[in-house]
Structure formats: C-alpha cells, structure tokens
C-alpha cells in the first residue's frame, strides 16, 4: 500500500476533517451542501495558522485513543437520521425498533447507511491521527467530548424520555377523553378514508410549489377543507399519523413497558379505544389496504387489534399485480392499489344495505425522498427525473381525483363520507429548504352527503382532532364532542392547540408517563 508523505498525510487529514465539519454545519442549518466547501476552507486556514498536526507539535509517541470517539460516532448516527428524515424523531426510532423493521422499502437508505458508516470510520481515523500528532488536541478533545454529548439532539431526546419516568407527569392523561357515543345516525354512512403519504397541505402554496396540489385543491372545492392542522410530536410517521387520526393520541412508544424488548410488539395501544373499535361495535365491515407490507412498523398489528376484519398489503396483494414485476421498493404502485381498492369497494357496496363498510387506504407515490410515481402518472405527466418530489405529489392528487371520479360515476359514493388526509408532514425531500421555511400544515378534507361544498374551516389544531371530527361527520354524537386528546373541529370549544399551544403540549409529552401507561396497559 502506498504511504503518503507526512505533509500530504497531514493536509489530507485536515481537509477531510474540514469537509466533515462543513457537512455538519450545512445539515444543521438546512442550507446547500455546497457551502461545506467554504466551511472546510476556513477550517484548513485556521489549521495552517495554528500549525495543527505539524510534527513540531508532537511531544509524545503514546498511541492514545481520543475520548471523543464515541461522542463523534453518535453524531454520525444523528447525521444519518437527519439526512434521512430531516428531523430526528426519537419516538419513531424507538417505535420502529419495537414494532418491526421487516419489509421496509428504504433500500436506498441502507446504501446510505453503509456510506455514512465508512465516512464515520475514516473521520474517526483522521481525528485519532490529529490527537496523536498534536499534543494540544489531546487536551481540547477531552473537553470537547462533554460538549459533543451534551448538544447531540439524539441524546437530548433520550434524556427527556428518561426524565418522564422520574417526573411521572399526568397533564395529557388529565385531558384525555374516553370516546363515548351518545347517539347514532339513523342511516349509518359508509366511510372511505384515504391517507396520502407525506402530501401535506403546505404544497397548496402555488407561488412556492406550483401546480403540485391542484387536483387536491379541486377536490376540496367539492367538500369541506380544514386548514391549520399542525403536527404534534410522536405523530410524524405513518403509523403514528394513523394512530393520531383514528385514536386521538400521539403514538408515544411503549418503551420499557414492553417487557419483551427483543421481540416485536404483539399489540399496539391495546387499552385505547380507536375509530376501528367504535365502527366494529356499530357493525361495520372494516378494511385497510396499502401498497407496502403491513408487517412494517406494526400496521397489521394495529389494525387487526382495533376491530378491522382485514389488513391487506404487499404480502397479500402482490400476487394480483399485473405485470408481476410492476412493483417498487415498498410494494404496489398507487394506480394498482387504487384499482384494487375500487374492486373491493364494488363488492362491499353490494352488501352495504345489510352492513356498512369502512375502507382505509394509504398511497405511496409521494414517499420521501423522491417518491414512487406510478406508470399512469408517467403517461399523464411526462418523464420523471427521479428526484422532484413535486412530480410525485402531483401524481398522488391526480390518482386520487381519478379514483373518486370513477367511484362517483358508478354511484359508489352514495351514502358515503370520503376523508382525505396526509398521514404526516413530509420528511426530507427535494423541496426541503422551501418546506422548512413555510408555515407547514397537514391535509384534511371531507366530501359526501351532508358535507358543505366549498367550505373552509381554519382552526389551530392537530391530527388528533380528526378523530372526533370524522365521527361527527358520520352522524355520531359524542359526549363533550371529544375523543382522546382530540376535539371536534365543528365545535366552538377550543382544541388543545388553541387553548395551550403546540409547544406546551409537546413539552408535557416529553415529561409525561401517565398517558403512555394508560395507552399501553396490558401490553406484553
């Protein structure tokens, strides 16, 4: 192996460390990664001025191991998560580890993980060389290790969750309302609930995002659109978004309340009464359909544990895909999924006079970072460049609009409430700098008989408020017009966000143990 001359080795090490520092800076500040070059240049200039790594600074031949090695490695873990999702959600990490990571569609992130690991190893080797070569760094890095641990957002989140066990807060539990049905509709309507993966209402800003949202905006004119719905902590990934809108609570992970730490969860929120539980008790036939595997992130466990008759995903549906290889990394494309959903709704509609039904479906087209646009969208929109998330958002809206138009033409939307919502705000994608600068909010709209057309309701709320709002739109009357932490958006009473503010609720969530204990009561 060729050995670099001492001078070349010194400046190679210092330059690489500068590039790593520049990457950290641009990631934390959400600016273009091209700016890592001037950051690295400043670092190298400082290194030249102070003669870092110069042979004259070496006073010992001891092969010391930097105290900062583990803190630096943990920062690389944080950077990988930030690069993948944009905002590190510790609750999501813990829940996915406990609920199961099998059959995920993030093969690209696996490759990225390998690259990050290699870069981290090289960086640790370079830093070790600097500490061993320059005696001044031997002292500085010991102090730096403390700061690296203290300011790592990942570790800060862990310390907050640990504090909740000590503080045993009960603020959220005190505001939780067990859903209580006071009266039922004379004619029980069917329900079609469409979760649009990462398709937040923020994209409706035409000045920033063009026509990406136009089909969804057109659908909104046919019904009632709810504006201003923010994202609470522990509701920012798919299963958590479903739990928020169907159970009225954030998905605070089971944590240590899950005794079998190395086994997947067998139940998800077993002590929490969700929309599926209520509709099942009302005699509804309940179906969930999604293109990805239902084994990923506990979706099958959640749905089957809360009254659903069937939870169908890639494992159950891919044999019906034509052609057989028309699949993406996650599973079925949305045009295939919505065609299958149409067929199932036709069959369910044949029986709806005797038994009403509720169909829940999840799209995949706009899944970050780049999306998975269907072939039908390529034929409608033209070529996809493989990066532009707005193309995939537009694809989602167009497919949903076409799906509902087809159902409407066949008379399959009679006595049916249609709910369209995002599952959560988008994670990191090609529009990330524009998104983080925007006033972000989730998609939530309703269409159907009895739902005013062209109406907009602007409330400061969150996705937990969807739960009681959907029940009221279906004709059910709720005690206190509340369910879980949700408050009906049709009511005059304030939502928790209006009454206390998003930061206050999130602050209590970081300190709370009582609601977590209540929701997971009985979990193994």
From TrEMBL:
Name of this protein: Sulfatase-like hydrolase/transferase
Annotated transmembrane regions = 7-25, 31-52, 64-81, 110-131, 143-159
Mostly located where?
membrane
- What is this entry's stated membrane topology? Multi-pass membrane protein
Enumerate the spans annotated as Sulfatase N-terminal domain. Answer: 189-475
Pfam families from the xrefs? Sulfatase
Please indicate which superkingdom the organism of origin belongs to.
Bacteria
Q: Which SUPFAM superfamilies match?
A: Alkaline phosphatase-like (SSF53649)
Query: Where does the record place it?
Result: Cell membrane
Q: Coiled coil where?
A: none
Species the sequence originates in: Chromohalobacter canadensis
Annotated keywords? Cell membrane, Membrane, Transmembrane, Transmembrane helix
CDD domains named in the record: LTA_synthase
């Amino acid at each position: 192996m060729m050995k670099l001359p001492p001078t070349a080795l010194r400046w190679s090490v210092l330059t690489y460390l500068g590039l790593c520092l520049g990457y950290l800076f641009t990631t934390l500040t959400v600016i273009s990664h091209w700016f890592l070059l001037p950051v690295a240049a400043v670092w190298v200039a400082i290194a030249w001025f102070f003669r870092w790594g110069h042979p004259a600074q070496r006073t010992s031949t001891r092969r010391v191991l930097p105290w900062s090695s583990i803190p630096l490695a943990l920062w690389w873990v944080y950077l990988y998560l930030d690069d993948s999702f944009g905002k590190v959600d510790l609750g999501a990490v813990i829940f996915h580890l406990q609920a199961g990571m099998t059959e995920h569609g993030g093969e690209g992130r696996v490759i990225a993980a390998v690259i990050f690991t290699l870069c981290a190893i090289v960086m640790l080797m370079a830093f070790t060389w600097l500490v061993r070569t320059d005696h001044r760094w031997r002292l500085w890095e010991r102090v730096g290790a403390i700061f690296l641990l203290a300011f790592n957002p990942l570790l800060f989140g862990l310390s907050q969750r640990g504090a909740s066990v000590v503080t045993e807060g009960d603020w959220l539990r005190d505001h939780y309302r067990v859903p209580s049905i006071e009266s039922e509709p004379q004619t029980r309507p069917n329900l079609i609930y469409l979760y649009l993966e990462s398709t937040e209402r923020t994209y409706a800003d035409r000045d920033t995002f063009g026509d990406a949202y136009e089909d969804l905006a057109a659908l909104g004119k046919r019904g009632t659109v709810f504006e201003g719905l923010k994202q609470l902590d522990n509701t920012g990934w798919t299963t958590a978004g479903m739990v928020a809108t169907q159970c009225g609570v954030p998905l605070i992970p089971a944590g240590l309340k899950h005794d079998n730490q190395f086994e997947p969860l067998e139940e998800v929120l077993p002590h929490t009464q969700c929309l599926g539980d209520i509709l099942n008790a009302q005699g509804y036939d309940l179906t969930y359909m999604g293109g990805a595997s239902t084994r990923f992130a506990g979706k099958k466990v959640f749905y089957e544990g809360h009254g659903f008759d069937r939870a169908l995903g890639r494992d159950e549906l891919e044999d019906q895909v034509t052609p057989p290889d028309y699949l993406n990394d996650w599973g079925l494309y949305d045009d295939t999924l919505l065609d299958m959903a149409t067929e199932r709704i036709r069959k369910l509609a044949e029986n709806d006079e005797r038994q009403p039904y509720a169909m829940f479906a999840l799209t995949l087209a706009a899944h970050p970072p780049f999306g998975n646009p269907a072939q039908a969208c390529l034929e409608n929109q033209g070529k996809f460049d493989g990066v532009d998330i707005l193309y995939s958002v537009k694809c989602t809206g167009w497919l949903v609009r076409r799906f509902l138009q087809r159902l409407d033409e066949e008379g399959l939307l009679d006595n049916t409430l249609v709910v369209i919502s995002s599952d959560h705000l988008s994670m990191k994608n090609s529009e990330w700098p524009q998104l983080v600068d925007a006033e972000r909010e989730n998609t939530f709209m309703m269409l159907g008989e009895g739902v005013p057309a062209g109406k907009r309701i602007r409330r400061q709320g969150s996705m937990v408020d969807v739960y009681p709002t959907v029940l009221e739109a279906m004709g059910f009357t709720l005690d206190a017009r509340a369910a879980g932490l949700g408050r009906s958006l049709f009511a005059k009473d304030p939502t928790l966000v209006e009454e206390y503010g998003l930061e206050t609720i999130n602050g209590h969530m970081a300190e709370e143990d009582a609601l977590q204990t209540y929701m997971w009561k009985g979990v193994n």
